[in-house]
Design a protein that fits this description.
By secondary structure, the chain is α/β, with parallel strands linked by helices. It has 2 domains: 149 residues, Rossmann fold, CATH 3.40.50.300; 66 residues. Helix content is 45%, strand content 8%. The protein has 10 helices and 5 strands, in the order αβαβαββαβαααααα. Strands 2-3-1-4-5 form a 5-stranded parallel β-sheet, sandwiched between helices. The longest helix has 24 residues. The N and C termini lie far apart (94 Å).
């Protein structure tokens, strides 16, 4: 009942709500319950494919519905400035989804909105929950001091929906040309593996500093470059573009057909005297 009241209040002021659960079944049941209560809601989990996931996030930002329920919303790397409330159910259940790191990152989903709030539903105070709250309070204190010192007034992030969706498409769908194209050409003669190794080092450093969004962006870039690396021809890497050009059409010569010519032999494997008249 408290969650329903919170969702209605946020929706009334034009905000969006993210609700995170522990199981797929709970997400589906809660979605059904909220729908019957008159709340515009959808759910998100791993069984939903990428394109539908993109459409769901777009519809949430556009206001087609107000509440998005998910299991591991932090894994999705959701960047939704319109999110004014994050509700974490079963916040006191120790485990991967309710570890200190996971709680901190999930709480961060509301940091892009100046009116953002987080509600954690729990019966007891766990160590993970306590550490997450302490770390969040420490960061807030430092941020407020910085803002006061530099005369900064916090504002909600403004981000165009089409640009956000374009970045999602670019991350999830990478078209790699095996022998030509701008993406391949820019790495010809360069050490792509060294670039990937450097990005991996930066990703791990960002994760160690709890900068999970930076780490996620670096991870996606590494995946893109690894896909590009797989698409490169072994004979092409390290060669100039001039050397990589295909042979001119006039240089091509057809291979002779029949036995000894490397072409198709209709009598091959059909008997030595096939086709001869006796």
């Amino acid at each position: 009942d408290d969650l329903l009241a919170e969702c209605r209040e946020v929706a009334k002021h034009g905000g969006r709500v993210l609700v995170t659960t522990l199981t797929k079944r709970m997400a589906e049941d809660l979605t059904e319950y909220m729908t019957e209560a008159g709340i515009r809601v959808r759910y998100l989990h791993s069984d939903i494919d990428t394109l539908e996931r993109i459409e769901i996030i777009r519809d949430l930002r556009k206001g087609v519905f107000d509440v998005l329920i998910g299991i591991n919303l932090l894994r999705e790397g959701l960047d939704i400035p319109e999110c004014a409330l994050v509700a974490i159910l079963d916040a006191d259940k120790e485990g991967f989804l309710r570890s200190t790191t996971s709680l901190i990152q999930t709480i961060g989903r509301a940091a892009r909105n100046v009116d953002g709030r987080v509600v954690l539903y729990a019966d007891v105070m766990t160590d993970s929950l306590r550490r997450a709250l302490e770390e969040t309070a420490r960061r807030r204190t430092k941020q407020q001091a910085w803002n006061k010192e530099h005369g900064i007034t916090p504002q909600t992030i403004r981000r165009d929906i089409s640009q956000a969706l374009q970045s999602i498409y670019e991350q999830d769908y990478v078209t790699v040309e095996a022998l030509e194209g701008e993406e391949t050409a820019q790495f010809i003669g360069k050490d792509l593996k060294a670039t990937i190794a450097e990005l991996d080092r930066k990703m791990r450093a960002a994760a160690a500093d709890l900068e999970f969004e930076t780490a996620a962006r670096l991870r996606d870039e590494i995946k893109r470059l690894e896909s590009l690396d797989l698409g490169l021809s072994p004979n092409l890497a390290g060669r100039s573009l001039q050397e990589a050009k295909p042979k001119a059409k006039g240089d091509w010569k057809p291979k002779p057909m029949g036995p000894g010519g490397g072409g198709y032999d209709p009598g091959k494997g059909k008997g030595r005297n096939r086709g001869r008249k006796s």
